[in-house]
Amino acid sequence: MNEHQLRGLIARVKAGDLTRRAFVHKMLALGLTAPMATQMLDYCGVARAQGSFNYKPSKRGGGGALKVLWWQGATLLNPHFAVGTKDQEGSRIFYEPLAAWDGDGELVPILAAEIPSRQNGGLSADGLSVTWKLKRDVKWHDGKAFTADDCVFNWEYASDPATAAVTIGSYKDVKVQKLDDYSIVVRFAKPTPFWADAFVGTRGMLIPKHLFADFAGAKSRDAPTNLKPIGTGPYKFADFKPGDLVRGEINTNYHRENRPYFDSIEMKGGGDAISAARAVIQTGEYDYAWNMQVEDEILQRLEKGGKGVAVITAGGNIEHIQLNSTDPWTEVDGERASAKTKHPILSDEAVRQALAMLVDRQSVQDHIYGRTGVATGNFVNNPERFVSKTTKWEFNVDKAGQVLEAAGWKKGGDGIRAKDGKKLKFVFQTSINTPRQKTQAIIKQACQKAGIDLELKSVVASVFFSSDVANPDTYTHFYCDLQMYTTTMTQPDPELFMNQFTSWEVATKDNKWQGRNITRWKSEEYDKVFRAAEGELDPVKRAALFIKMNELVVADRVVIPVVYRPRVAAIASKLKAPLSGWDNDLWLLADWYREA
Amino acid sequence: MDGSTPASPSVDVAPGGLRRARPVSPGFEAWRRFRRHRLALASAVILALMIAAIVLGPSLWPVAINDIDFTARLNGPTWSHPFGTDDLGQDLLARMLYGGRISLAVGLAAMAVAILVGTLIGAIAGMSRGWVGSALMWLTDLFLSLPPLPLLLLVIYLFRDFLKGLFGAEGGIFILIVAVIGGLRWMPVARLVRAQFLSLREKEFVEAARALGASKSRQVVRHILPNALGPVIVAGTIDVAAAIIAESTLSFLGLGFPPDTPTWGRILYDAKDYLDIAPHWALLPGAAIFLAVLSINFIGDGLRDAFDPRKVM
Amino acid sequence: MGSYLLRRLLIAVPSLLGISVVLFTVLALAPGDPFEELATNPAVPPEVRTALRIKFGLDDPIALRYLRWLAAMLGGDWGFSFVSRVDVGALILQRLPTTLFVIGSSQLLAILIAMPVGIFAATRPYSIFDQITTTFAFVGFSLPTFFTGLLFILVFSIWLDWLPFVYRSDISANGWQWYLEHARQAIMPIAVLALFQAASLTRYVRSAMLDVIRLDYVTTARAKGLGERVVILKHVVRNALIPVVTLVALQMPAIFGGAIVTEQIFRVPGIGSLLISSILANDTPVVMAVTFVFACLVVVFNLIADILYGWLDPRITFG
What we know:
The complex is a heterotrimer of chains A (about 600), B (about 325) and C (about 325). Chain A is of the alpha+beta class. Helices cover about 25% and strands about 20% of the residues of chain A. In chain A, the strands form six sheets. In chain A, strands 1, 7, 8, 9, 10, 11, 14, 18, 19, 20 and 21 form an eleven-stranded mixed sheet that branches. Chain A has a three-stranded antiparallel sheet with strand order 4-6-5, with helices on one face. A three-stranded antiparallel sheet of chain A has the order 15-16-17, with no helix packed on it. In chain A, strand 7 (about 235-240) and strand 8 (about 245-250) form a beta hairpin. The longest helix of chain A has 17 residues, at about 435-450. Chain B has helices at about 25-35, 40-60, 90-125, 130-145, 150-185, 185-200, 205-210, 215-250, 265-270, 280-305. The interface between A and C is large, with 60 and 51 residues.
């Protein structure tokens, strides 16, 4: 899919020939995110669609208690320190951003009066600034008014390195100025194609200046409001027990009418995914449970009771297997898997090709993930029509064997193939997680039939995903041949996601393995395309460049995609809740209601 | 011998003259008494059968343990799969036989480590009247306070590669697991043994032995220890069950055998979410653990009764 | 006895210090990172993580960190959780009532079940009663708590729908309704834990009783014409209690440490779940505080057990 074809599709949307949603779907197939797709359409002047969520209740309150289960409990309630989505969701009950992403990747104004665009003058032609108009008559929970000063403060707070906010990435390269009490302008240092980052979505929640001003910089973690949030959201703070419970009560001064429906919300943490599923779907003790990492077969059984359902929301997460480009078994300068080495076996194209044919994605989808995982062969989800020209996923043990045979890998007495004294033996690691272990078992069996021996290794998640410099089991160290996990793509812009294949991001001992290129793959062509995309203002051209980057990665079989994993939540039958894969689950909490 | 008092009141003098009784060693006597404890005997037989099954089974039932067959998932017992199948269609009988080796070996070995270390420390502490006892009790308190999880992660991190290098992959892991499980369960045994010793060392028969000139170690080994063994045997049986389960818990920390190794504890854990769908999957390893532990317990009971001089059998 | 007690108490302080050094070192050396979630988030630049590590003093040498911790502890400051920046003391106090209620009741229940059953079984060894209780005891400790917990949930929450299985520490009801609701949600975790404990405790009680019941002085007591009940309760039980006291003392600190698996299954917000989540998140101040209190309890209860030995068996002397 090149730029020309992309423009053709956009023209069809403009002419009404293709729905916005279908276009977004196609873009998802190519590795782009929904927000990126909608930005493309906006740039080309395609009229925005109306949100499709119907909020029915005609008065505020009266709905009783809303009980939600997050099997990882929130541990702090300041969105700028949120370590992981659980804390973002806990904060989202009380705080709001200027705008949020809905399930289709469209921007929805929350604290903003409208979404900036070229037509209404919000977006400058040179891509260097965005002007936001703020909603009037919005009050913080303690009664003070929400103004532009609060937005400017949030920018100062987050961009100050002494605060050590996790949202710093979105705010450090911009300057925010107050135009008047209800409008601000965000200025970029260089033309920025993807402007909807600061003040939007998970990293855009706003905290009140008047309560945090004394606690900026180094004192930021001492603010009492960190534990007793005062925001603009639909619920006021009631109680917080870290790791266990967050409780909120209805905000009677909420800035959108007739909302919220529920009188209180209780977010309970702890436990595991499957008992959370049971609590919502089987016993009805809770109304909503997040992130159901449960085998679909079990979910379907639970759904038979009729009290709840599992809801699947499109997002961008891909469960994939990484192939090490370097040699993890040789030590160079005190470092294994050093970028100076090359993997003796995996650098053979035939071996990589064979491995790609030994992943039984269909079985993994059918028997392990079910609806919660869709088999894919691109590093981006791949329904029906958009198969990359150079790769096609198939599962064929015999063919894999033939490929290996043809390349000189002959079976030895123990059934394992070898060539030049090197055996096809690999160590395959992943984190501890039942569906992953089952996937490993399936792949191991197929490999065994083709003559490849896999030793399975599983590492406890908190160690696998840690950034500990001394621990050899982390995924960034990659001290084995193959590893498998899910990369999340809930960042609206894929640029941050795709930089994990650039050569300057290679994780090495020198950068304490903080580099994001874990496979240590290097390709000059990829680097060139990436640099080009960084500076490209035209979102359509940029999209074409991203698609090309995807093709390069998949064609060289740097990674073997397994299943695309949308978000799965369990929701009580009568509860109506709009969900989005591009923002937090609670992005529109104010609009949740229960049908009578 | 003529003129000496018979040692045991059960030695009969045959009517019609003196007949020299065949000398009976204590070991043989114990075995004879053990044989009369019916439950212990039955349990010994059961345990022997289990061990035989595990050792010989895989050659008699040559089904692969990881043959994934999606057409036969979660089936109950049938002729082709006498124990049924799990959710990947793997044959449970084969998996239980294979995993049983590891589970029983780990269970028995870890129990042995815990009992030996605990008894040793408890005996020394129980006999000492000075600082040695206090120091050993401090050590016991220390181990009791250590949180197992960070300790395990640390141990794995420090020793795994070293042991792998010395004993090979499987051997290294086995030693590590047994050391870790046994090393975290000896403390209750030590305290129990010490408590028994504190009480027993003041008893008259020990005083008598001391008066006869028995050295301390002889007092301990021949007089006190046999009487202190009651709680030790109970601890032993409980430890076997705990060790089998602990091994599966360790596999969740990445320590332990690779995740596809079907130890009994692991099968139980994998099956727990399917209790209402496929109960056979969980009940079988549970029953196996139960049976192993039960038989070890009755054997222990039998052994204790066999060696107990007071009990008349 | 008095001087022995004094001596033990004096030794307790340095012994606890020694334990705290070892605990701290183990925690400091254990792999893992309090800020690992930041590592997987591509939007967080590494400078932020480094800044946080420096702020919390994570890169200082271990000895320095230990002394800092010790000084703070002695001053009554238990530190702040890395993860949520809440005062550690407050975190523990939040969870203490629930832990005492659930875990404490289960320990009590376990003792109340194990003692009579064990005693009675010992008086009639190998009878039907004994064999049945033995079997149940074995089933009890052969099956791990995660299994029995799930079984209970399946039976009582899902099939019978009698009891809720998610524990909520704040129930908004009044009067006896509140007690009823609390009891309903607490029965299952308490039962699971109590049965597991009672299973092993019963075996110990029975074994200890059997050891004593055949001794000569029991026969003497019977020969004196004392009723069976008096013989058992006054003579046998008291002497058989030594192992039981040892075990109960070993179990008491667990009331504070909580029961990790059961708390996880039923979502009981106890100290056990606080401990495990802090360990997994490498939240060292919380782990250190909890394990230190746990260590103090271990030392105290073992001391109490030692004193009780002297009362149960007057012949026991220390030193």
